[in-house]
Amino acid sequence: MQSSGHRFRDVEHHPLLAENDSYDSSSSEADMAERVWFIRDGCGMVCAIMTWLLVVYADFVVTFVMLLPSKDFWYSVINGVLFNCLAVLALSSHLRTMLTDPGAVPKGNATKEYMDNLQLKPGEVIYKCPKCCSIKPERAHHCSICKRCIRKMDHHCPWVNNCVGEKNQRFFVLFTMYIALISAHALILCGFQFFSCVRGQWTECSDFSPPVTVILMIFLCLEGFLFLTFTAVMFGTQIHSICNDET
């Protein structure tokens, strides 16, 4: 398709939006979309809630099962402050990742007027997304869940109910790092607690009964091992992608 001396590529050959079909960026709906970013995906919202619940569960076991019953005051204080600080940082990073626009391309900007304003060179090729009718920048990809083209899209992560892209990748990297750290910390504390309980023959080991204490700590160990493995690998791949400027 020829337009103003340059080529316009569209995989599905959808026509350009007419000028009277372009969106009104001054409308209240568009303004609200610019201020608030939240993906209404059922699976993603369930996964995000599960993430918070798992962190809260880990904090409960660490605080009330392992640290508060301990007779070593400074051991409890130092580890309690450290673990809770990492948990708060992890949840705040998760919230920033979920509620930050990952770099969405404006919908419906593939109009002839907009293309003329780009001042493209003759023969230069530009691409239009046939699903959201937007001109796709380099390395932008369309997300079927967000229903938008995302700049430098890495992937859509259900655990944060959002795409990881140009504007929120730093928060996602911090989230994976903090989760990996608190998972490792929880596993270390579980190891010390098991050793202490076995040595003391489970007497005054916890305010809970020995069977309940064992069950809570086993679930925490499984959670810590799974999330340490997952987030450590994800953190490593993200750092590698950033260093090599890849997605």
Provide a descriptive summary of the structure in words.
The chain has 247 residues and is an alpha+beta fold. The chain has a domain at 42-102 and 155-242. 53% of the residues lie in helices and 11% in strands. The radius of gyration is 25 Å and the shape is elongated. The chain starts with a strand and ends with a helix. It is a multi-pass membrane protein. Its EC number is 2.3.1.225. This is Palmitoyltransferase.
SSE order and pairing:
Layout: E1 2-3, E2 6-9, H1 28-35, H2 42-67, H3 73-99, H4 112-117, E3 125-129, E4 134-136, E5 141-143, E6 148-150, E7 155-157, E8 162-164, H5 169-199, H6 210-243
Parallel strand pairs: 2-3
Antiparallel strand pairs: 1-2, 3-4, 5-6, 7-8
Helix pairs in contact: 2-3, 2-6, 3-5, 5-6
Membrane topology: Multi-pass membrane protein
Keywords: Acyltransferase, Membrane, Transferase, Transmembrane, Transmembrane helix
Subcellular location: Membrane
DSSP strand tally: 8
Biggest sheet statistics: 4 strands, mixed
Q: What structural category characterises the helix and strand content?
A: alpha+beta
Stretches with pLDDT under 50, minimum 5 residues: 1-33
Mean pLDDT: 83
Inertia-based shape: elongated
> Strand content of the residues, in percent?
5-15%
Rg, Å, rounded: 25 Å
Helical proportion, percent range: 40-55%
- Distance, first to last CA: 30 Å
User: Which H/E pattern describes the elements?
Assistant: EEHHHHEEEEEEHH
- Strand order, main sheet: write it out: 1-2-3-4
Number of helices: 6
